[in-house]
Amino acid sequence: xxxxxxxxxxxxxxxxxxxxxxxxxxxxxxxxxxxxxxxxxxxxxxxxxxxxxxxxxxxxxxxxxxxxxxxxxxxxxxxxxxxxxxxxxxxxxxxxxxxxxxxxxxxxxxxxxxxxxxxxxxxxxxxxxxxxxxxxxxxxxxxxxxxxxxxxxxxxxxxxxxxxxxxxxxxxxxxxxxxxxxxxxxxxxxxxxxxxxxxxxxxxxx
Length: 206
Hints:
By secondary structure, the protein is mainly alpha-helical. It has nine helices and no strands.
């Protein structure tokens, strides 16, 4: 799978017609590049962020005010998360409009939908981490919406056992944001690229 992933990124020969930017707009590649930027910037932010109820917000302030380039890095991470969500949604729309979800690519379409859901979930879990009032209110709103769906109360109890802003909720959101969701996105992305390569893409390679 890893070999096919590298071949997808760096094919030996590509049809001239495959280079048409207007067909795919490179939305998938741009989305994956943005994800890599998020991983790198998030890793650098983790050197200063402290996932504690009383320390999280102060660590953000320290990062922005006392760390060289800290404010730029945090804004890069936050804005990249918005860009990633937009790119994945546009990529999904492009797939729908071009009929690229049809057989034999229906499995890859399901993976793409799962990736969209994971990107939304990743953005949501990161929203609580600054632990300011807006983050707590937004998390409470999201959990209230979750309760309206079947089995939502069960998942809410797992995500926020001590209400939004509690120490257990914060550490769970932190682990979901920096480990579980990113690893899941990366694994599904590898599978996504593997299937594209296996199915020779929308515009086949030689």
